[in-house]
Amino acid sequence: MSDWDYLWVNAQLVTMTTGGGEYGLIENGAIGVTADRISWLGAMNELPVRAQLDSPRVVDVKGRCITPGLIDCHTHLVFGGNRAREFEMRLKGASYEELQRAGGGILSTVAATRAASEEELFTAAKKRAAALKREGVTTIEVKSGYGLDVESELKMLRVAKSLGDNDPQLDVTTTFLGAHALPPEYASDRAAYINLVVETMLPRVCGENLADAVDGFCESIAFSPEEIERVFTRARELGLAVKLHADQLSDLNGAALAARYDALSADHLEYTSEAGVSALAKSGSVAVLLPGAFYILKETRLPPVSLLRRQQVPIAVATDANPGSSPVLSLLLMLNMACTLFSLTTEEALAGVTRNAAQALGLLDDRGTLETGKRADFVIWDIAHPSELAYMIGGNPCVDIIKDGKTV
Ligand code: DI6
Ligand code: FE
How confident is the model at residue 102 (pLDDT cuts 50, 70, 90)? Predict the structure, then answer.
């Protein structure tokens, strides 16, 4: 029986491939793996006649749904301390921007992250990753950006990378976010900090192979479009892909800026204009929506979902897991919020944490859908229809996770 090493049968296969029906659904299907790849996939009645369904290598999932492994394509999972006290202050009326300008916000996490050892950061991040994993997450992106000096940024990236080492369920991609906030020691010399990022941090990060991509926070409380351009220019010279925190709190034409550098994604986008959406459509960048940050900051300005749809920009959804604007460790909750807050369909939301999240990480050839030849990362859910994943809040229906062809 050479078609597969293991076969899962009687499944609702939520393939998330495009061109077929909703969710790329194959009702009453089977999926086989050989080594770490999907080697057979189709309807039960198309199984080869020689298939021996009573073999111990065959698992009957009894009508449950199987989706691709979930992908969280935007997280800040590595950080020191937390900002629960700041959450209290915001509830009493302080705004996120006020706290940031007063030296709190990101900078308070920077102080805690600099003070933490690599081991402490790892232990805390590993716990957060475990929460994501329980809900069927098999790939995450993790950013630096709370170190903001050479050694602390490298420390964060090493910790982020090591989250995936020896973890049978989790692949980690890392992103260098040196342009996240201006560190206090450069408060009076912005250009000198950007020089440090461009001339010292980026070459070190690249030389030590610590990042798959480069991100920036383009915002009045962070960095200007011109400053981000300096970082992106150097990143592209070094052969690194870019992505951007764009137009979250104001429209600085961040989406168009990201598009000019062929960004993998532009993220947030609440204030993105129609021209920004058109630019993303042309560059083929993914729009990553982050409903957790929108919710926590009690934002009212909605991302331009109808325009993104009309211009066929792929939409991803992520947790933005971070200690300030999105203390969120549930990607399933983000599915619900993307639907209720941003009016995505349940199918769009699920595509946002599978196919389009894979594209946002440049990994669509390898994962993100159920197709033969792709990595055998998938999740068995105790649900009868994929809409249930976005519909229910709480009560995690994940029953089994297969990563690289192996049950974990
Ligand atoms: N992502 C970020 O990087 C910033 N906002 C966001 O949505 C700030 C994160 C933080 O407050 O620590
Ligand atoms: Fe973020």
Answer: confident
Among residues 139, 127, 122, 42, the alpha carbon closest in space to that of 78 is found at 122
pLDDT at position 1 over 70? no
Show the tokens assigned to 244: 């951007």
Ligand nearest the Cα atom of residue 142: 2
- Bridge partners for 173 per DSSP: 141
Which band of pLDDT confidence, cut at 50, 70 and 90, is reported for residue 301?
Answer: very high
- Which pLDDT value is given to residue 101? 83
Say how far apart CA 320 and CA 210 lie, in whole Å: 20
140: which strand partners?
Answer: 72, 172
Examine the pLDDT at 299 and tell me if it is beyond 70. Answer: yes
Q: Worst-scoring range by mean pLDDT, 45-59, 63-77, 256-270, 298-312?
A: 45-59
Ligand nearest to the CA of 247: 1
- Asked whether 59 and 124 are in contact (CB, 8 A), the reply is no
Distance CA 119, CA 124 (A): 9
Specify the ligand 1 atom closest to the Cα of 106: 12
Cβ distance 372 to 389 under 8 Å? no
Asked if residue 24 lies in contact with residue 14, where contact means CB atoms within 8 angstroms, the answer is yes
As annotated, the residues of the chain forming the CATH 3.20.20.140 domain(s) are 70-360
Distance from CA of residue 384 to its chain's centroid?
A: 26
Q: Where in the chain is the domain with CATH 2.30.40.10?
A: 6-68+372-407
Mutate to test the pocket of ligand 1, among 228, 325, 328, 334 (most ligand atoms within 8 A of CB): 325
Amino acid present at 19 = G
Q: Minimum mean pLDDT among 21-30, 97-106, 116-125, 379-388: which range? A: 97-106
What distance in angstroms lies between residue 146's CA and the mean position of ligand 1's atoms?
Answer: 10
pLDDT digits (tens, 9 = 90+) for 318-341: 999 999 999 999 999 999 999 999
Contact by Cβ (8 Å): 397, 382 = yes
- In the CATH hierarchy, which top-level class contains the domain 6-68+372-407? mainly beta
Nearest CA to ligand 1 atom 11: 324
Q: How much is the pTM? A: 0.98
- Which residue ranges have their beta carbon within 6 Å of ligand 1? 76, 105-106, 109, 180, 217, 245, 248, 290, 293, 320, 322-326
CATH fold of 70-360:
TIM Barrel (3.20.20)
What's the one-letter identity of residue 7? L
What is the atom index within ligand 1 of the atom nearest the CA of 109?
12
